[in-house]
Design goal:
mainly alpha; elongated; MetI-like fold
Length: 272
C-alpha cells in the first residue's frame, strides 16, 4: 500500500506541515503578546478573548503555544543536522576505515549508546548555559551514536557491492569512493533515522525544559509550559492539557511518518 493511500500517514503529514507552518508564521497569527501579563485574568478558562484560557500570570495560552513551537522545532532541526553529519562520518569510518581506527570509533559509540539520552543531556546541560544553541549542540552530540550505528551497518552492506569494487579497481581514492559509491547508497536509512531523531529530540528538549534546564523563561516552550502548569491543575486543568496535547500529536505524527518512510524505502517492508 502506498503512503498516499494510508489515512493515518496523510493525517500525520498534515499535522507536521501545520506545525512547521505555525513555527514559521506563529508570531504573525498570535492573538496576544505571549509575554504580556494581565493580573485581572489569571488562570482563566476558555473565553472569547482568550480562546484557550490564560496561565498563572494572565498570559494568553494560545499565543504562548504558537510562539513555543519555534524553539522546540529549531532545537530539533539543528540537533538532528549535527547528529546526522557527525554520526554519518563516524559510521563510515567505523565500517570503511582502517581496522584499528574503526574498532576504536565503534567502541566509543557503543559506550555512548549504553547511557540513556536524558541522563547524558542532564550531565551536559549542567555545565552549559541554557538556550537554543547550547541545547542543539548537546542533543546533537547525544544522537550522533545513533546515526553512527545506522551508517556503519549500511556501509558494511554497500562496500561489498560490485560498484564499490569497481571504484577500487580504477584506483579511486577513499574520499571519492565514499562520495560517489558509499554515501549516495546509504542515504535511505539515514533519512528514516533523521525523522525518528527529530521526534526524539523534540521529546528530549521538552523534557529538559520541563525540568527548567531548557529554554530560558519568560520565552515559552511546550515542555516549559507543561512543567509550570502541573502546579496549577486544581485552578486550571486545561492549562496542562493544551501543551501536552500539542506535544503528543507532533511527536506521534513525526513517528508515524518515519515508520511509513521506512516501509516505503525498504523493499523488504514495502507493500504494493
Amino acid at each position: 500500500m502506498r503512503m498516499s493511500r494510508r489515512p493515518g500517514v496523510l493525517a500525520s503529514a498534515a499535522i507536521v506541515v501545520l506545525v512547521i507552518l505555525v513555527a514559521l508564521i506563529g508570531p504573525l497569527i498570535a492573538p496576544h503578546n505571549p509575554l504580556l501579563i494581565n493580573q485581572n485574568a489569571v488562570n482563566q478558562g476558555s473565553s472569547a478573548t482568550y480562546l484557550l484560557g490564560t496561565d498563572e500570570f494572565g498570559r494568553d495560552i494560545l499565543s504562548r503555544l504558537l510562539y513555543g513551537i519555534r524553539p522546540t522545532i529549531a532545537v530539533a532541526a539543528l540537533s538532528t543536522l549535527i547528529a546526522a553529519i557527525g554520526g554519518t562520518a563516524l559510521g563510515i569510518v567505523g565500517a570503511y576505515g582502517r581496522p584499528a581506527i574503526a574498532a576504536f570509533v565503534m567502541r566509543v559509540v557503543d559506550i555512548m549508546l549504553s547511557f540513556p539520552p536524558i541522563l547524558l543531556a542532564l550531565l551536559a546541560v549542567g555545565f552549559w548555559q541554557s538556550g537554543i544553541a547550547s541545547l542543539s549542540v548537546v542533543i546533537g552530540l547525544i544522537f550522533i551514536p545513533h546515526f553512527a550505528r545506522v551508517a556503519q551497518s549500511a556501509t558494511l552492506q554497500v562496500i561489498r557491492q560490485e560498484y564499490v569494487e569497481a571504484e577500487h579497481a580504477m584506483g579511486a581514492r577513499a574520499m571519492r569512493v565514499v562520495g560517489r559509491a558509499i554515501l549516495p547508497n546509504i542515504l535511505s536509512p539515514l533519512v528514516v533515522q533523521a525523522t525518528l531523531t527529530i521526534a526524539a529530540a523534540i521529546l528530549l528538549e521538552s523534557g529538559l525544559s520541563f525540568l527548567g534546564l531548557g529554554i530560558i523563561p519568560p520565552d515559552p516552550s511546550w515542555g516549559q509550559m507543561i512543567g509550570t502548569a502541573r502546579g496549577y491543575l486544581n485552578q486550571n486543568p486545561m492549562y496542562v492539557v493544551w501543551p501536552s496535547l500539542c506535544l503528543a500529536l507532533t511527536v506521534l505524527a513525526i513517528n508515524i511518518l518515519g515508520d511509513a518512510l521506512r516501509d516505503h524505502l525498504d523493499p523488504r517492508l514495502r507493500q504494493e
